[in-house]
Write a structure and sequence with these properties.
With about 230 residues, the protein is mostly helical. The protein contains 8 helices and no strands.
Length: about 230
């Protein structure tokens, strides 16, 4: 109902990223030749099964990826369905928080569509138990259409940078990079190149020393996007 509550709600929409960041590695880099996980003797069998492409539906990592993504989506939907009723929030502030929320919803759906293809598409907040019943899977194309719509709003509403404790929130550059990654996933090379060139104008660049990327003292450098 006010700006403080809106901030609290948006912070809650970021929270599932805590587990999804690790999931992104498990279902991405760990399956490549870049990294590996062999921990069957220490209770890591389920991760090793992912590494070896032997996933089954009861794998806790799969369940976490699915549930945490939809928890994030549900929180984003709650914000977007109620933000217009909030009072006393300057338009630019509201636009920024909506941009962050749309970015996050797009991010969560992007994680889902790459792992599962078409998934149930939810864009409104569930008000009653009867509304929670699944309507089945939307097509992969419908999910990408929604993602691109949300990212477009995010690009328009997000600032290029933040200061103080807000550093780390979704920026215009983060939204552009996500759209670029979507275009590359869809093999839309021309569109991807245009976004990459726009990204350059926002001040992003590669570091001279590669190992500086991993230095905790050099966090949020010119190579950090989100």
């Amino acid at each position: 109902s006010n700006q403080a509550e809106l901030l609290q709600a948006v912070n809650g929409a970021y929270a599932p990223l805590r587990s999804l960041g690790l999931n992104a590695w498990k279902f991405g880099e760990m399956r490549s030749d870049n990294t590996a996980d062999f921990e069957t003797n220490t209770g890591g069998e389920q991760m090793e099964l992912i590494d070896q492409f032997l996933i089954i539906s009861t794998n806790d990592n799969v369940i976490s990826l699915w549930s945490q993504s939809y928890i994030g989506i549900s929180r984003c939907n709650a914000i977007l369905d109620h933000v217009d009723a909030a009072v006393g929030i300057p338009d630019e502030i509201k636009k920024m928080y909506i941009g962050q929320t749309k970015f996050l919803r797009a991010f969560y759906y992007f994680q889902l569509v790459r792992q599962f293809g078409g998934v149930p598409l939810r864009t409104t907040f569930i008000q009653a138990a009867t509304d929670a019943l699944s309507k089945g899977r939307s097509t992969k194309e419908q999910i990408y259409e929604q993602i691109l719509s949300d990212v477009g709003v995010a690009i328009d509403g997000l600032p290029s940078s933040y200061s103080g404790t807000d550093i780390g929130r979704a920026t215009k550059g983060a939204a552009l990079m996500m759209r670029d990654e979507i275009y590359m996933t869809q093999k839309k090379v021309t569109e991807a190149l245009a976004d990459l060139r726009t990204l350059q104008t926002l001040g992003y660049s590669l570091l001279t020393n590669y190992k500086d990327i991993f230095d905790p003292l050099k966090k949020n450098n010119s190579e950090s996007i989100f």
